[in-house]
């Protein structure tokens, strides 16, 4: 255990699994106090068990403004102020555009876009001078991939918000950046499309990737910690962690 982030207070939405969990683990292991959120109490309980006593779980749906108000009140009580906010909660929905229903569209935007925006708005009063906010976009926001039109459009909206929110929070000395993961093996694809389709999708992503592999949640977590704490002259940008697939 190192103490690099000792004394730092962090909120991670969707921190019970995948990239959010890996980031919580990295930060807790380096001395930070972390509040993770999610919709499933069982997932949150399992996560806090693994993270230890410097992690607290709050069940909170990012698409619900009353839940976000309650989260802000709880964080104020538990941590007081915040040094970093990782806006990570999101759902991956793969669907041909002809088959996409209004309900799917609304759910994707309610969680991935509206949820992210109001997470920042509700927690912003707690952010201290010098704090870092990290929004989670995706390489889908600059690629024309199959069956991702709604998801990709939502992530492109977040890319834009990273710039506008940077401008609005700059007077308070708060930086806002985006992390853009490429293919990261977290199990979320299997959840979104089933194992068979996920296996096929994953084989295609590996074949096209310059590094010929998926990334790990831990590789994204390191980049998130860099943006949140170490990138002190960086705001409004997007850091891509994708094995080079959008760059080479
Ligand atoms: P994941 O499913 O393990 O993590 C998403 C987390 O968000 C889960 O813990 C889930 O419970 C939570 N969540 C979902 N809806 C929520 C809601 N309404 N309120 C609160 N929490 C909610 O998947 P992941 O791959 O770790 O995804 C994390 C983020 O990274 C997402 O925003 C995703 O779009 C993005 N991303 C992932 C990849 C990838 O390849 N895995 C690629 C690009 C972007």
Automatic annotation (TrEMBL):
<dbReference type="InterPro" id="IPR036291">
    <property type="entry name" value="NAD(P)-bd_dom_sf"/>
</dbReference>
<dbReference type="InterPro" id="IPR020904">
    <property type="entry name" value="Sc_DH/Rdtase_CS"/>
</dbReference>
<protein>
    <submittedName>
        <fullName>SDR family oxidoreductase</fullName>
    </submittedName>
</protein>
<comment type="similarity">
    <text>Belongs to the short-chain dehydrogenases/reductases (SDR) family.</text>
</comment>
<dbReference type="Pfam" id="PF13561">
    <property type="entry name" value="adh_short_C2"/>
</dbReference>
<dbReference type="InterPro" id="IPR002347">
    <property type="entry name" value="SDR_fam"/>
</dbReference>
<keyword id="KW-0560">Oxidoreductase</keyword>
<dbReference type="InterPro" id="IPR057326">
    <property type="entry name" value="KR_dom"/>
</dbReference>
<feature type="domain" description="Ketoreductase">
    <location>
        <begin position="8"/>
        <end position="182"/>
    </location>
</feature>
